[in-house]
Design brief:
heterodimer, A: 498 residues, mainly alpha, Sodium/glucose cotransporter, 22 helices, B: mainly alpha, 4 strands, 71% helix
């Protein structure tokens, strides 16, 4: 079987992609209007929503960047995982009920729609939609690039595709993504998420079991090897230090409730009461999938220090080296399929919310109505958005990485800092005002862009994301407290009392 | 607890902003964010743990404790004001104390290691790290239990559901009337 390693991995990935295409065709028959396309007609069951929610949370970063971070800086990045219970708790306590209620009452199909209804402000809708479009471009470009790089690594290991170029890999992977997103909209997206989530959980468990068998003394021996080399890298804060770790703790803990691609999924469940099942299932799925991040990172760092394997060329090679050296071809195939699943499940969610912002929210904010024939335009813009992101990814790879790096800063931290106060606190406090919302969004964008543009390194590993989040929260509350609370529409006022 | 809660949240955020400012202005320590590993390229070392915490340790621990309090306060804000009973307040305060206990055990275990160079292991990790990984994750489990077990009592009661369904029917009836006109 070892002789056919590359072929088995390729077959697993090809099977997964065929599944995505078939799901797209199946979902096309169930997508008859823009509500189906963007929020699945608010008719999804609890298992589907929970799997879609956690698989969209853990992008390709969790499978490639996560183990690479552990190799590089020890356990610092574990804080992104350990905070998941608190992060999902805030999402469910603060957002899931009211976002679903408002979307039902006002027939909302996007997060800016809900916020425009809550604040009674087209300015808030516009600012949130612009933030989403900028963030989506950065996220999508990096995800498409990651997908293409992994595909090239797999294909170039086979005799038939040994010379395949990156452009061809971008084209193949984007084509599959575009196909199922255009034909089936969010319905295809969430049902592929179900399988994607399942693959990620299975991969996480199997990788943990494999990792524990690398050293005779299991994980304890691996961590002892790391401790003997540099104790701080395996102590609670890791090599990056206490403020870097707490920054992730803060931004990933509170920030989950401000991620537009995640909270939008909270608008899609059939019944509000399903939330009590969705919450624990999402946490469980996330933790099982994240086992891969933890176990690969620790084992690769320990085996390099112990001289069992040579040092990596780059930290992000940690997962692929582990899969090559320590797993069977079959498990490697499952994990590579899981990697594509993780990347695609995040990409399709971003493609969906970016399209909604462009064809629904920005026109509504500018002229008061959405475009005519939304479903047709949704499909056209989904294609265009994915193509632009793919070109953007290629440009950044071959010519200039500055722009994509800049928009990459519009990742999790910027969404968290700019949207968490406006969404999570705004949906639970009648005193939240439009000036407060504007102050939070603008300050978060300015600080994140400012730190990125100037290349400022803050002391003690404090990140721009942490600084912008703390400032934006403070400003949102302070400005709202000193400005007059608006008269809410009566239906929104009643929802906020429930 | 009604309107006072937002002032509690504001006070927590203001205190955290101040602590972050103090950390940014504290005397810098070389390599506080890690230094390159002398042997393995791409790997970083944390170095002297005590030195890294010398000027900011207390501020950082306070920042984390406030963050744990903020998570509990924000979760409480997510519960309708009508359902924030004395029993719920007690539960939420206990949840914070549970998280704070875990933080204390983690910090104490780390300080013990820095002082003695010795540690026990729990489920594959040194004690301090085990508190950080398993303990911090479990710290918010009481919130999950409240949400799941107390859903019909605190989150979305049958009365809430009836109120929302009535509101939904009213809105749809108004929409239908407006459409007919």
């Amino acid at each position: 079987m070892e002789a056919y390693r590359q072929e088995i991995i390729l077959a697993a990935v090809a099977l997964y992609m065929i599944f995505c295409i078939v799901t797209g065709l199946w979902a096309m028959r169930r997508t008859t209007n823009s509500s189906d396309f963007f929020v699945a007609g608010r008719g999804l069951g609890p298992i589907v929503v929970s799997l879609a929610l956690f698989s969209s949370t853990l992008s390709g970063f969790g499978f490639v960047g996560g183990p690479g971070l552990v190799y590089s800086i020890g356990v610092s990045s574990f804080w992104m995982i350990t905070i998941s219970t608190a992060g999902y708790a805030l999402g469910f306590f603060m957002v899931s009920k009211r976002i679903r209620m408002i979307s039902d009452l006002r027939n909302c199909i996007s997060l800016p729609d809900v916020l425009a209804a809550r604040y009674g402000s087209e300015l808030v809708r516009m600012l949130v939609a612009i933030t989403i479009v900028l963030g989506v471009m950065g996220y999508l470009a990096t995800q498409i690039l990651a997908m293409a790089v992994v595909m090239q690594a797999i294909l170039s290991g086979t005799a038939m595709f040994a010379d395949i170029g990156l452009v061809a890999c971008v084209a193949i992977s984007s084509a599959v993504l575009i196909f199922y997103c255009v034909t089936g909209g969010i319905i295809a997206s969430v049902y592929t998420d179900v399988v994607q989530g399942g693959i990620m959980m299975v991969a996480g468990i199997l990788i943990l079991l494999t990792a524990m068998s690398v050293f005779d003394g299991g994980m304890t021996e691996a961590t002892s090897v790391i401790l003997a080399d540099d104790s701080e890298s395996i102590m609670p804060w890791g090599s990056a230090g206490i403020m870097a770790a707490l920054g992730w703790f803060f931004v990933f803990g509170l920030g989950l409730a401000g991620q537009p691609h995640l909270v939008t999924k909270m608008m899609m469940n059939r019944n509000i009461s399903d939330n009590r099942h969705i919450f624990p299932m999402s946490v469980l799925g996330y933790v099982l999938a994240a086992l891969l991040w933890v176990s690969i990172g620790i084992i690769i760092r320990a085996t390099v220090i112990d001289g069992i394997i040579p040092p990596l060329d780059a930290p992000d090679d940690a997962a692929s080296v582990f899969l090559t050296l320590f797993t069977s071809p079959l498990l490697a195939g499952v994990v590579f399929a899981g990697l594509f699943a993780a990347i695609m499940s995040t990409s399709d969610a971003f493609l969906n919310i970016g399209t909604a912002a462009i064809i629904h929210d920005i026109p509504k904010a500018l002229k008061g109505t959405a475009v005519k024939d939304e479903l047709l335009w949704a499909r056209i813009v989904t294609v265009l958005l994915a193509i632009v992101a793919a070109l953007f990814a290629l440009y950044s790879y071959y010519a200039d990485a500055t722009l994509v790096a800049l928009l990459g800063a519009f990742g999790w931290a910027t969404f968290a800092a700019s949207l968490f106060p406006v969404v999570a606190i705004g949906l639970n406090w009648k005193g939240a005002t439009v000036p407060g919302a504007v102050a939070a969004i603008v300050s978060a964008l300015l600080i994140n862009f400012g730190v990125q543009l100037t290349g400022t390194a803050l002391p003690y590993g404090v990140s721009g994301g942490l600084l912008s989040f703390v400032v934006s929260l403070f400003l949102f509350l302070a400005v709202s407290l000193v400005t007059r609370a608006p008269e809410l529409d009566s239906d929104i006022d009643r929802v906020m009392d429930i | 607890m009604g309107r006072a809660l937002i002032y509690v949240i504001f006070a927590l955020c203001a205190a955290m902003t101040l602590l972050l400012l103090l950390i940014l202005l504290a005397e810098p320590v070389a390599g506080a964010g890690g230094v390159a590993h002398p042997v393995f390229e791409g790997m970083r070392r944390g170095g002297d743990g005590a030195a890294r915490l010398q000027h900011i340790g207390a501020y950082a621990y306070a920042f984390q404790a406030l963050l744990l309090a903020l998570i509990v306060a924000l979760s409480t804000l997510g519960i309708s004001e009508r359902h924030r009973s004395a029993r719920l307040r007690g539960y939420m305060i206990s949840t914070f104390l549970f998280s704070a206990f875990i933080l204390w055990r983690m910090v104490a275990s780390h300080q013990h290691f820095l002082a003695t160079g010795e540690t026990t292991y729990f489920m594959g990790f040194p004690a301090a790290t085990a508190w950080a990984i398993y303990g911090v994750w479990a710290g918010a489990v009481p919130l999950m239990i409240l949400y799941v077990a107390g859903f019909r009592q605190y989150i979305y009661t049958e009365d809430d559901e009836a109120q929302f369904n009535a509101l939904l029917e009213e809105t749809r009836a108004q929409d239908t009337q407006a459409g007919a006109r």
